[in-house]
């Protein structure tokens, strides 16, 4: 296992021929943007390359795969993109965990096991690394690649709103727009469209909001029963995590989502430098300073109690 | 009245000595960003300059005026910024309407009367024009100026999300971040903070949502009674206009807000190229293709009826 530079990573991506690109479970715009951008770039170079998903491509992101079909080949090089820890590979972990040749990531908390690690935690999105890599691979950025990279940069920065946004994020966006990136479609899909079911889910979630620690901690939750009552799928659940942190005075915003396996998927968003990554590490999770996640086993009340207890200790 | 270039406008802004800078009523981030950026730039050149408001500076924007005090002087040059039509000057119209020496704006529908017009409708924000102007005036962009310009560009593009966002918008943002612009504070204030009263207002507004034209038109409203019940001020009312357009399938999203003078302030947001500016022109208003406004006299039901009728004709 060795840390490598971007240009060493670019070399690895031109020296081999048959690539599998692994994404993280519950795939988001950044891991998918990385995977499709890199896949299109490798194919431009005449390589075989497939994007490997833990589960179905979320319907909102089908635009990334408009010009994509799985290829038939024997893999000789495995790359993971935007995957911070082995368990985040989900169902891919069992087969791939000890076969990763190159890990490309932007999480400071990265704990992946791979032959080569290319991690830059100064990047707001892993797609910012992919952007530099593709240029270093001497591949022209096509419209498909531009759309994929923009998807990662824009979704991981909350459309250039979160504190992780840098001048580099904006420079890349400007370049991609000049290259024909379809920001109108992408922004509309990712930031400006709510199904009626999602609207109803938001209303229902507002009703669950509780405040602790003198208003500095806000918690919301969703249950399987709520999802069923509204016919809400995974798409309807996205973005809920940003709601509790937005309330004036809140430093830790917690969103709990009941899963079928008896756990709660917990998303933590913080303000004022409170470390969400450290908070989630208490429960075996991780992520970024202002946005992290973890899983907690148990019923709603006991899981909530543990989270409130942890918030009280942190604040 | 003559159309002038940016460099001619820059000359006018260096040739005179005592400037009043007029903003539009219900001042938003763009008109205020323009005014404070230009004011700080003029003062750097040793000029006298004041920002003139129709009403009190909205509390969320006080950060723009942290290093601002009104000066005492006799004005000899009047500039309007981001004001598309004389009536949008509000209470300033009576005194200033026939005294405007330079109008700087980015609305294609601009109908101002002024000695000199500098209008560039390709700019997402009037602050993008101000950015070029200040450079042409050879003034260094200080942190205060950067914060003001960023405020205009980010608020008028919905934090780089709306369809009006261009590569230029991103280039300017990148430059301002490099110049020390405080995007963390500004984005948090403008995009990431909701008072509890605002949260309650959103919930109440969701309950008023009605769909027409087979789901292509969505309408929400607020009344003075609703505002009073929640103790919601002007700050709580901001951003509501983006709610109805976000619903899947909606092409015209209409937000009606009852005002004390017996009118409804109407905000129209559109998708798929439906012209919001033309829609609002039917009621004496105007704005941009995807975001416009107008005022309608009458009670809730009759005003709503007129708007639905117009939507049916347009769709």
State which percent range the strand residues of chain A make up.
15-25%
Strand order of the largest sheet of chain A: 1-6-5-4-2-3
Q: Mean pLDDT of chain A, as a whole number? A: 95
**How large, in whole angstroms, is the Cα Rg of chain A?**
19 Å
CATH topology of the largest domain in chain A: inorganic pyrophosphatase (n-terminal core)
Number of domains of chain A: 2
CATH homologous superfamily label of the largest domain in chain A:
inorganic pyrophosphatase (n-terminal core)
| Number of E-state strands of chain A | 12
Oligomer: homodimer
Please give the most extensive interface between any two protein chains, plus how many residues each contributes.
Answer: A-B, 39 and 38 residues
Low-confidence stretches of chain A: none
Spatial shape of chain A:
globular
Topology of helices and strands:
The structure is a homodimer of 315-residue chains.
Chain A: E1 2-3, H1 6-15, E2 18-22, H2 29-44, E3 48-52, E4 77-81, H3 93-96, E5 102-105, E6 116-119, H4 126-136, H5 143-156, H6 167-178, H7 183-191, H8 196-206, E7 210-212, E8 217-222, H9 224-230, H10 234-237, H11 242-245, E9 252-258, E10 263-270, H12 276-281, E11 286-287, E12 291-297, H13 300-314
Parallel strand pairs in A: 1-6, 2-3, 2-4, 4-5, 5-6, 8-9
Antiparallel strand pairs in A: 7-8, 9-10, 10-12, 11-12
Q: Characteristics of this structure?
A:
homodimer, alpha/beta, inorganic pyrophosphatase (n-terminal core), Diaminopimelate Epimerase, Chain A, domain 1, 2 domains, six-stranded mixed beta sheet, about 40% helix, about 20% strand, globular
